[in-house]
Amino acid sequence: MKAFFEGIQYLFVDILFAPLDFLRSLELTSWFAANTINWIFMIICASAMVYWIKQLKIFEDAGTEKQDTTAHSFLK
């Protein structure tokens, strides 16, 4: 049983976390390069939010947005 848990430890520590260890060592030389993944995720989230707000505006201007407050019985 001990070998099983050591195998799980080896998988996570030595294989799956290797990219994160690389980013941690990269941070000592270049903060911007180490945080490139974070910048990419922030750009993706910002562009998705802009797209979502544009779609909300399109449906609001077209009048297809249904804002009936009696849709649920607890809102009456």
Automatic annotation (TrEMBL):
The chain crosses the membrane at residues 31-53. Keywords: Membrane, Transmembrane, Transmembrane helix. It comes from the Bacteria. Pfam families: DUF6341. InterPro entries: DUF6341 (IPR045922). This is Uracil phosphoribosyltransferase. It comes from Flavobacterium glaciei.
